[in-house]
Design a protein that fits this description.
By secondary structure, the chain is an all-alpha fold. Helices cover 48% and strands 0% of the residues. It contains 6 helices and no strands.
Length: 171
């Protein structure tokens, strides 16, 4: 008689499995089949279908809510004109008024004048608010001008409003 043959040891040894559970290297017994796995194409179609469904849900939600993201709305987008009143349109400042305004902002905080195009765009919104909805203007100005290269407080905002008021007139 020959001694029983031993299985070669695996390295690292396989973790013990509960009784009756096949280990990873064992095949299921004959007559039992594994559930079919999705092929690469099937999996890709399932992912694509999930993406389309998610986009449809998001689109529907945006349509129901009006499509505006309130957290990303600028302060000027949240401003609403008074009921029944027509908005006054502001006149564009002249080049000399723009230079004077930029100089005034530089005195308040040099960071406010880093991008002159942005400075004048923001000034136009402050002017529009000054002409149409002056209530809460200092807080609005803090929100409008803070961020990027500068952060201002309400006292500085009042100085900015005075600088805007020097040239802000109806068109």
């Amino acid at each position: 008689m020959h001694p029983p043959q031993q299985q070669p040891q695996q390295w690292p040894p396989a973790p013990p499995q509960p009784y009756g559970q096949p280990t990873q290297h064992m095949q299921p017994p004959p007559g039992q089949h594994r559930p079919p796995t999705k092929s690469g194409v099937g999996r890709g179609l399932a992912v694509a279908g999930g993406v389309v469904l998610a986009l449809a849900v998001i689109g529907g939600l945006l349509k129901l809510t009006g499509g505006e993201d309130e957290t990303a709305a600028s302060p000027s987008a949240s401003a609403s004109p008074t009921a029944g009143a027509e908005r006054v349109v502001a006149a564009e400042p002249t080049r000399s008024q723009q230079r004077a305004y930029l100089a005034a902002l530089k005195e308040i905080d040099p960071g406010l004048t880093v991008n002159p195009t942005r400075v004048m765009r923001r000034a136009g919104r402050v002017c529009d608010r000054l002409l149409n909805e002056p209530d809460g203007l200092p807080k609005y100005t803090v929100l409008e001008l803070s961020g990027g290269n500068a952060t201002i407080d309400e006292d500085q905002a009042k100085q900015v409003i005075d600088a805007v008021a020097a040239w802000c007139r109806p068109a």
